[in-house]
Design goal:
Layout (H helix, E strand, L loop, with lengths): L1 H48 L3 E3 L5 H5 L12 E12 L2 E14 L2 E12 L8 E5 L14 E2 L5 H6 E5 L2 H7 L2 H8 L7 E5 L2 E7 L12 H15 L3
Antiparallel strand pairs: 1-2, 2-3, 3-4, 4-9, 5-7, 5-8, 6-7, 8-9
């Protein structure tokens, strides 16, 4: 009898511990979710103050429209554009998208979130993909007709990864002046793609972890600055 009471008591303690751990986990999950929602609301509100229009129900046809970009060519379980902000900044039309996709993993499913800045350059650019080597996930890139571009510039090649539809055109485009400009960027957080005279600059990571500090307009300023540099190339 004493043995049974001991087992029952031990089981009761185990149940209490499990419930406490579960409760703590739920508390922190809700706290993080609430913080993420607030940050995302703050992000959209900053752009709305700049005169941007918000669409929380964008057409799924946009995923097909953007298929030329490597970002949207991922073979995923699910792809979704959550919302689009549309407006003018520095005399240029921009679309700002929250985009996500899910991939299968050994342990289940992993979600990947992006904040995407999309616009049309004022001069023709070659089709390319540019990323800091820190952020590149080469195995999941579907390169199709793209090839890796090599440069006789060890410092640049250590820092950046470039793919292009026409490597020779990309080598001419990423000339010494442009490479020096990019090397001076101590932290280029954006991954940048140019395709069919459209440019996207995007950040990977959950909204709560994006490096927009207290004013996400700074990100738009950075994207605009880089695009202007691209447009100045002859």
């Amino acid at each position: 009898m004493a043995g049974e009471e001991f087992v029952i008591g031990l089981f009761a303690v185990f149940v209490v511990v499990v419930l406490v751990v579960f409760g703590v986990a739920v508390f922190f999950f809700l706290k993080i979710a609430k913080r993420s929602a607030k940050l995302e609301k703050d992000l959209t509100q900053n752009f709305l103050k700049e005169g941007f229009m918000l669409d929380y129900a964008p057409s799924r046809n946009l995923l097909t429209e953007f298929k030329g970009f490597l970002l949207f060519q991922i073979t995923a379980l699910r792809q979704r554009i959550h919302y689009i902000l549309t407006g003018t900044y520095a005399g240029r039309e921009w679309k700002i998208l929250k985009y996500s996709y899910s991939l299968p993993t050994d342990g289940g499913i992993s979600s990947h979130n992006f904040l995407v800045f999309l616009t049309h350059p004022r001069s023709r650019l070659p089709n390319f993909y540019l990323a800091n080597n820190v952020f590149v996930n080469k195995p999941i890139l579907k390169t199709n007709n793209y090839s890796e571009v090599s440069f006789n510039d060890e410092e640049f090649s250590k820092k950046y990864f470039v793919l292009a539809e026409n490597p020779e055109d990309a080598q001419l485009f990423f000339n010494e002046q442009l490479r020096e400009f990019l090397k001076e960027k101590t932290s280029l957080d954006f991954m940048i793609e140019a395709y069919d005279n459209t440019v996207i600059a995007y950040l990977r990571g959950q909204i709560a972890k994006l490096s927009f500090s207290s004013n996400p307009i700074v990100l738009l300023q950075k994207a605009s600055e880089i695009l202007e540099k691209f447009e100045s190339q002859k």
